[in-house]
Write a structure and sequence with these properties.
mainly alpha, elongated, 2 domains, binds zinc ion
Length: 95
Amino acid sequence: MEKTLKRPWGDVKRCQAKSRTAGRQCRNPAMKGKRVCRIHGGLSTGPKSKEGLERVRQARIKHGKFTAEERRRQKQISSLLKEAKATIRKIAEMM
Ligand SMILES: [Zn+2]
């Protein structure tokens, strides 16, 4: 949920970062167009190069269970299983 604070000059978006010590929201004013203040990564421009983006992508993979490749593989397995079950059912009906 986007937290804002009422101000005479309009609503000010608040930093959405959560404090590690108190567990509460930071609530500093968020940077323009960002969801966090400058202390909590608002100054970050994100990865600039293709290599940098790929490094971030690789770093974020925990176990690879939800990568596009793995999802495709799981779909294949499940469709094969479905096919096999249908075949078994057909054979059982013939007996
Ligand atoms: Zn903050």
